[in-house]
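To the team - NAI complex, inputs and output below.
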Amino acid sequence: MKKTSYPKKEIKIVLFEGIHPKAVDMFKEEGYVHIETYAKALEGAELIAAVKGAHIIGLRSRTFITDDVLKHADKLMAIGCFCIGTNQVDLAAANKLAIPVFNAPYSNTRSVAELVIAEAIMLMRLIPLKSAICHQGGWSKSAEGSWEVRGKTLGIVGYGHIGSQVGVLAESMGMLVKFYDVEPKLSLGNAKYIASLDELLAQSDMVTLHVPELASTNNLMSCERLQKMKQGAVLINASRGSVVDIDALAQLLISKHLNGAAIDVFPVEPTSNNEEFISPLRGLDNVILTPHVGGSTIEAQENIGLEVAAKLIRYSDNGSTLSAVNFPEVSLPLHPNAHRVLHIHENIPGILSSINELISARTLNIVSQFLQTSGTVGYVVVDVEGDVQEALALHQDMRKIKGTLKSRILY
Ligand code: NAI
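Output:
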């Protein structure tokens, strides 16, 4: 195992908000022993005290890492958001301080895809309506308006991680899968690309939305678009609330242009479980409403724990920053016979040449060199062969380069 300028036993990891125990196990298996865990989010003076001296922190959505908190995090090397979103961290401030932030954007893909398939079946069978009638003491035993999904067309809008997985599951159940995406995508199985969204809507018995929240997807399913859906079709939205005109959807469900909907995400969502959920869709026939739980499963929580812990360990052990959300992304190979110096600096001209001058002044051979810049920082990784004392001295020299923010050596 390589030594580092931060020996593992000295690296302090602080995990907030009851992060999955599998993440803690993974850190331990990789030799990290100094791990502090908190069941809940901290704030104010307590949070500041907890981040002081921490090299790595892990959090979910309720720990707010502001510029001010970061100023007190005197040793902080990396932040792991054990969730999808990263809004709770001041990413620009972390970037300026040379702190990469990692998250787990795709660990719950399967969970969302499974829910969508289940909802498609439920909606096509009018189950939400029939279930509500039974709950009220009624009995609606009839096949009218109930369809199998086999042989029906599922239109997927946004054929990314979730959309394409929904397509694979849907095909295995005999649905005809068509999709629309703004990017060229290789279709899986027999899924058919449709070049126009309006055309896809006109052909689909079930439409499911899997686009990101962007200015270009805001109100993508406007009233006009919703009207382009087939008479009697159903809509599923487990993407983002801003994508659908929810008032127009309610009207089209009331007028029976659409036969049902399953909505997991809303333009305005309660901020806690104690707040009332207000929506024009409440009480409508054949509508499944869920509280933004598309990706919320035990498996997804575990996957998130493992994914983010692995990224933090990889950065700490090897310097790789692949998929960091605020930082130059560098994917690094193993470096069994070389010493690796990691140098993070202000993104100003001339740093690489200063580094190379320092290397040529020593009896060291460059094995490989990586440079990536993003925002206000640049990240250079140099693997050098030669005497370990020379490599350590090089590291000390590199720390003195004007504009240096942070540096480490793995030797
Ligand atoms: P992704 O980034 O892998 O895929 C998104 C796809 O949408 C890409 O292929 C992209 O090219 C396409 N796209 C972008 N703009 C488009 C447009 N105007 N029309 C058609 N296609 C467009 O994202 P992923 O992981 O599949 O997530 C999809 C959505 O699901 C995101 O909004 C994400 O926030 C949401 N999500 C919701 C969860 C929940 O709990 N309900 C859990 C996880 C993700």
